[in-house]
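A reminder before we start the practical. When you read a complex entry, don't treat the lines as separate problems. The point of joint prediction is that each chain is placed relative to the others, so the output describes one connected object in space. Small molecules and nucleic acid strands, if listed, are placed in the same frame. In the example below there are two entries. Take a minute to note the order of the lines before looking further.
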Amino acid sequence: AQTVTQSQPEMSVQEAETVTLSCTYDTSESDYYLFWYKQPPSRQMILVIRQEAYKQQNATENRFSVNFQKAAKSFSLKISDSQLGDAAMYFCAYRSATQASYDKVIFGPGTSLSVIP
Amino acid sequence: DGGITQSPKYLFRKEGQNVTLSCEQNLNHDAMYWYRQDPGQGLRLIYYSQIVNDFQKGDIAEGYSVSREKKESFPLTVTSAQKNPTAFYLCASSITGGRADTQYFGPGTRLTVL
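Here is the predicted structure of the whole assembly.
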C-alpha cells in the first residue's frame, strides 16, 4: 500500500525568506500524481500545486515550486518570498493513476508552517 | 459561482443520535468524497462515489453511511454506531476519467458529541 510521510511536523520561516517542506512517499507504481494542499486556519483545503509523475519538469505556481525526485520518491515544496498569508498546515498527497485505485488519495500527516513578521 | 458547500458549519450531537452532514457541489463533478480529519492528523477517507446511486467504503467507513441520489449531492450520516465521531469532516469532488483529476474541497463541518 502507498504511504506518504512528512517528517517535519512544524516549521517556521521569516517573512520574505524561502522555506522548503519535505515529503516522501512509498509506492510500487510508476504512474501517479502528487499534490500539495494548504489548509489555513479557516480549515478550507486549497490546492497549491500538482505534479504528474510522468513529467520530468518540476511544477511551478508563482512563488510555489516543487523538487520532484522520482527515483528517490521525494516531493518537496519550496515557498519563495514567504508571506504572512502562507501560514497554514500543508499536506502532501498521492493519487494513483491506476484504474483500480484511481480514486484513492493518500494524505500525509501535514506540516504546520508559521511565518514570522 | 461554482463550488462545494457544506452545512452546517458546526454541528452538535447527543450520544445515541444520528446526524446528517450535507455536501452539495455545482461543479458538475462525477466523483465525490468524504474525509475525516482529527487534530494533528491528515485526512482519512470515509466513503466515496464515482457515479449516482453507487458508492464505496473508504478506510474508516464503520459507523457512517452515505447516499448518492443526485449527482450534485452526497450527504453523510454519522450513526450512533460511530464510537468517536467528534472531528472535522471535509467533503470533496473531482471529475473522473482522463488524467490528473484534482480534488476540490468544501469548507468543512465541525461535529462535536456532547
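Discuss with your neighbour: The longest strand of chain A covers residues 88-96. What might explain this?
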